[in-house]
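Example 3.2
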Amino acid sequence: MEYSIDWSTEIWTSLRWIVIASAISLAGLLLVGFVIARFTRWGQQFWRVNGDFFAGPSTRVVAWGYILALLIFCIFGVRMSILFSYWGNDLFTSLQNVGSGLNGQGPQAQQLIDAGKAGFWHSMWVFAAIAAVHVVRTLVELYIGAAFEIRWRQWLTSHATADWMRGRAFYRNRFVDLGDDSNDSGIQPGIDNPDQRIEADITNVAQSSRLLLFSSGGSSTNGVIPALVTIVSFTQILWNLSGPMTLWGVEIPRMMVWLVFMYVLIATVIAFWIGHPLIRLNFWRERLTANFRYALVRVRDGAENVAFYRGERVEHDSLMGRFAAVIANYWQIIYRNLKFVGWNFSITQLSVVFPYLVQAPRFFEGRISLGDVTQTSDAFGNVHDALSFFRNSYDDFADLRASIIRLDGLEDADKKSRTLPAIATADRDRAVRLTDVDIATPSGDELIRDLTLSLDPGDALVVKGRSGSGKTTLLRGLAGLWPFVDGEFTRPAGDRTLFLSQIPYIPLGDLRTAVAYPALPDDVGDDAIRAALEQVFLPHLTGRLADEEDWSKVLSPGEQQRVAFARILLTRPEVVFMDEATSAVDEGLEYSLYTLIRTELPDTILVSVSHRSTTDQHHTEVLELTGGGAWELRPVAS
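Structure, written as tokens:
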């Protein structure tokens, strides 16, 4: 029996083919990738988000090593598919020979039977070898792909988180108005839910990019690179097997090749038209589901307040309102997907019979074998599936593009937040100077105008004024958080200046981490932490330093404020700015805490925002904000 290819030399033939195809594919990947990153909007967004991973000196070798390995193994998979198609040709041809021999008589018939049997068992051994190699290849490719995703996610998460934290962008980017500079009028690339962008969208970008570019589950047609290589490879096979076909009196040579390309081209254009709205719908799906999750977290974090207010009905209505928006968006996606998937599925089903219809007349005339017919069907199916990959994967690409837009929007907001105005600061030991400081609202209304004052070691200033006069906003401006500020601010550098908010931030972790914050527990030591807790009247916590709890829920507001005073004792700053730092404790405890600070740190400069008159006695001066930008500085009355 004559086999479709020379299996004895196929190992070296396949190795040479893989090397040549990999080199061509790598060159094409670099060229097309450059064009996309340079001249398409989504390519530019992708490169802004991920470019440093592929071009950075610390990651580019590893990144491109993974890419090269994935490229080789996915092309290896295409070669396996080609070999399986030739194996199928030999298998069915051998069966056809046996069938022909069984229907004949004499030595020639017996020769056909013997040749067919030999060909059949040869095909079984060939299949065992190909299948074993293909299984190992697939497992290795899956491992390399997973390792690549993990490295990519690690880098991207670290990069996005660091960028979000740098320059206090995690706070200041709320003041950035990105507007709508996209080509999709329904998409507003803002900064909602950065937590979801950093976790879910990064995961989607790394995973979907790898699967779309290379392959999924060892498939030779499910990925851009294997699909393109499959199209070229199986088109050559289809070209050799395809014959002419007469259509409306005109004979068309190699009809099978032209049929599959025209069929898929028309189907793809229509599929893209149907699927384009999925980009916008997937973007809003991410935003709406993230908003719903955030609302659930808000109820969890505010459970005690909600319970005190008996606000269950209001919270339920609010949650269901947000969830209704999620469901409405989901139904829109379902309706669009029904059209998209329905079209693609119908096109795929219709394509199954085409190779048999075209090749049947030639088979009936005895010009081709049964193996040729089955290989034609296999080649047609591979070319069709590879061409259809771009059509069938449009919804996955739409989902990927939505994630890229969200990550690019976050990075853009972080970058712009660092360009927002901030008060001019300078370092000076053991002194505070404010010169011509202006504070305004986002709408431009003046809160404070031309504030100038000086504080030296041991001085203490209390800031007072009616609600909304700008007391807390002044502290935000001095801390570099508020962008609607002007003037000069001189203070001790780094952690020698400490800002305390009204409700202290309690990080996740054990109690020693919560008390030492923003210092590390090892920087201060457990003995110092226990001593500080005793000094701020929290002796019952000294034995729980290793306990991990959600301490913001375990500790009462008054206990949390006492923890903030413990942090002052541990870090021993030269200047402390406090915003209503004793609002949750009684007047007697407030007196004890302030007395403690003035006794332990007599040279520390205190600046307190307070509504209570009882805090005045612990300060030397009063800054009264009288409204409209006006202010008054006077000594504390005896």
